[in-house]
Write a structure and sequence with these properties.
Blueprint: H1 2-44, H2 48-62, E1 67-73, E2 80-85, H3 103-111, E3 115-117, E4 138-145, E5 150-158, H4 164-195, H5 205-222, E6 226-233, H6 236-243, H7 245-262, E7 269-275, E8 278-283, H8 288-304, H9 308-312, E9 320-327, H10 335-351, E10 357-359
Helix pairs in contact: 1-2, 1-4, 2-4, 6-7, 7-8
């Protein structure tokens, strides 16, 4: 009988070990699959919001939680902007920028260290968003950082207690998530560079053509007039010849932000670098009269601006000539015709003395003999 009892006890011990092994095996298998899913998402997803949403869904399969939030550090490093909330915030809860040291997100981003709270009722500030109601439970907050800086943070909470294994898994996973966000941000910057002129910060010619087609389609729906302005720096070749191409490039670079400041870029106007020393402005929902007012404001702003070449050489003048055209509903014009009309008006402004604004009329013609005409978009001196 004693031997039989001993045998039963041994068999029971083996069964317990087997159960422990199966639990450990299942947990490790789940973690491995989680890393596989997150890695696949990082490799395929290029939009930060979609990337995080899919990753959080994958994490939920391995770690149960009730709520989650993800914040990214602002570009100017002044605080954190929300990127993802697992639960929709209540009207009372704030959803705006969180500053460093405020709440669990600000504390984690400020210190760069993870945070494990066993009882959220004892934490003095908020864990996900300002003005949220305090709830019993536990919380894990993990910084998302690379070698150089903190990129953001992600936090999870639930009413039951998190395990140390959950904390370690999320902390290990954070490096992969950070790499994914960094990759998505790099792709976004590359895409922006392909659409933005590096020297001036203005949109480039390719985007101009896209925007013109968009505006034509919108006019077909709304029937509203829009306008287009071509701008050319007067006597730009003289500046290049006298002071060198570096000074010429500096002048073009300074025109970019000045042009955006003089136009209504927060509402209806979009500025472009057309090419060389030429610029253009697309004015949505703007008739010819209003466009002429904006063009004159640009002309005056350039004439009065203290460009570096003017500061170094007080006798030097920097001015622009501008040509304006408009697209009236039902005109049947295409975008190349609109550009050409502004081009013709610009030529006439140049021919009549420069530093002027002119608008297209049916009497506009290209000055000079046909053999002397410059192709559209060529620099004008």
């Amino acid at each position: 009988m004693p031997k039989q009892k001993t045998a039963k006890g041994k068999g029971a011990g083996e069964s317990g070990s087997e159960r422990d092994f199966k639990t450990l095996f299942y947990r490790k298998l789940t973690e491995t699959h989680l890393f596989y899913e997150v890695g696949r998402t990082v490799a395929s997803e290029l939009e930060p919001a979609d990337l995080i949403k899919k990753i959080v869904i994958s994490i939920e399969k391995a770690i149960n939680f009730d709520d989650a939030s993800v914040y990214l550090v602002k570009k100017d490093m002044s605080g954190l902007d929300p990127l993802y909330y697992h639960q929709a915030p209540t009207p009372e809860a704030g959803t705006g920028t969180i500053y460093f040291e405020n709440g669990a997100p600000g504390e984690i981003a400020g210190t760069g260290e993870p945070l494990f709270i066993h009882d959220t009722r004892l934490y003095e500030s908020f864990i996900h968003r300002p003005e949220e109601a305090k709830k019993p439970g536990s919380y894990i907050g993990i910084p998302l950082k690379n070698e150089n800086r903190i990129g953001g943070f992600m936090g999870f909470s639930r009413t039951s207690a998190f395990r140390v294994e959950d904390f370690d898994l999320l902390r290990t996973l954070s490096h992969l998530i950070s790499a994914g966000l960094e990759k998505a941000e790099l792709f976004k910057k590359t895409l922006e560079l392909s659409r933005v002129d590096e020297l001036t910060g203005l949109l480039n010619y390719r985007v101009l053509l896209e925007k013109l087609e968009e505006e034509i389609r919108r006019q077909m729906r709304t029937g509203r007039e829009f306008s287009f302005v071509m701008i050319d720096i007067d006597d730009f070749k003289r500046i290049n010849d006298r002071y060198g191409h570096l000074e010429g490039s500096r002048l073009i670079a300074q025109i970019g932000p000045l042009l955006k400041a003089a136009c209504r870029t927060t509402s209806t106007d979009t500025c472009f670098r057309y090419g060389g020393e030429e610029f253009s402005v697309l004015l949505a929902e703007t008739d010819l009269h209003e466009a002429l007012v904006v063009a004159e404001r640009v002309r005056k702003a350039v004439e009065e601006y203290p460009f570096s070449v003017k500061v170094a050489h007080p006798f030097e003048k920097v001015t622009v000539s501008l040509g304006v055209s408009s697209m009236v509903y039902g005109s049947g014009k295409a975008s190349p015709e609109l550009i050409n009309e502004a081009d013709l008006a610009l030529y006439r402004a140049k021919a009549s003395g420069k530093n002027k604004v002119d608008c297209f009329t049916e009497t506009c013609t290209m000055p000079g003999a046909p053999s002397e005409q410059e192709p559209g978009g060529a620099p004008r001196h």
